[in-house]
Amino acid sequence: MLKIKDVSVSFKDHTVLDQLSLTAYEGEIIGLAAPNGTGKTTLFNVIANYLKPNEGTVVFNDQYEYKSEKDEVDIYKQLTPFPDQGDLFEELSGVDHLKLYANMWKGTSKHIKDIIKELNMESYVKNKVKTYSLGMRQRLCFGMMAAADSSIMLMDEVMNGLDVSNVALISEKLIEMKNNQKLMFVASHLLENLDLYADRVLFLKDGKIIHEHHIHDNHDTFIKVSLDPNRYNEFKQTYDLPEDHHYISDRLLCIPFSKLTLSEQTTWLERVIQFDEREFEIGTLGTLEYYEKYYHDSYIRK
Ligand SMILES: Nc1ncnc2c1ncn2[C@@H]1O[C@H](COP(=O)(O)OP(=O)(O)OP(=O)(O)O)[C@@H](O)[C@H]1O
């Protein structure tokens, strides 16, 4: 278990993390979704002790903190930060890198054969890294984490530069690692992909977690209607929308559905149909929709 307690980080007068707290458990994948420059890497740097927070602490297994060298050594046995592609050794092979991580954390490299096979690296892993493409390097970085097999892993942009089939491959492997009780933090801009493997996705804004999207306990359904801003205004003037409706990214009206009585559900469905909106569905909100809701402006900029 990892507890982040009231962590604040400021660079001069710029507060990046503001009294942020979080408890995370083994067997959990926690996604971090937020635009560039919001503080995801800063949070990872605090967890890995690359950066001392101005305030707050990180506690591992209710026992270890970055307070003494001994604790630090104990924490590093359990924690692997995602290797930076720039830190790979160009003259060494992929196998050399996998062995390095396996031996450093696990004390054996017997298991790396399986990792090489699972990550489809057989054809290139014996060659020197300097011959690798971006995607090959990224798969190697992920393989190094899998080889370390530590109980906590921090993955910053793990899917960077991967094609669709490799994204699927790594997503599957992440789920397998989660089933082996690993705790993984994954910062990613591939929002819909997070829904495939994360247990919860945290949205950061102004240094705080503004929403936790629990993927498996997400039973609240909405009537989701595509409406441009003019039509949305017309709809709002015609019907008294519930206060907890969402209007996301100037395009999607979401009317709470599952919490209504059957007759209220029927009424809202009739209203939507009468309004002559054929493009609607009933469903839950995913990571992409929450992202659009919280960061509409930055989403548009991209
Ligand atoms: N060493 C530093 N000195 C000054 N400012 C910093 C430093 N490190 C990070 N920052 C600032 O902190 C903010 C958060 O940066 P961070 O790298 O944590 O964002 P991020 O969410 O990981 O972004 P991205 O999606 O681009 O990786 C940014 O405004 C950045 O400029």
Automatic annotation (TrEMBL):
InterPro entries, sorted: AAA+_ATPase, ABC_transporter-like_ATP-bd, ABC_transporter-like_CS, P-loop_NTPase
Domain ABC transporter: 2-231
Molecular function terms, GO-annotated: ATP binding; ATP hydrolysis activity
PROSITE patterns reported in the protein's UniProt record: ABC_TRANSPORTER_1 (PS00211), ABC_TRANSPORTER_2 (PS50893)
Matches recorded under SMART domains: AAA
Lineage: superkingdom: Bacteria
Keywords in alphabetical order: ATP-binding, Nucleotide-binding
Pfam families: ABC_tran
Record-linked PANTHER family: SKFA PEPTIDE EXPORT ATP-BINDING PROTEIN SKFE
Protein name as it appears in the record: ABC-2 type transport system ATP-binding protein
Organism per entry: Tenuibacillus multivorans
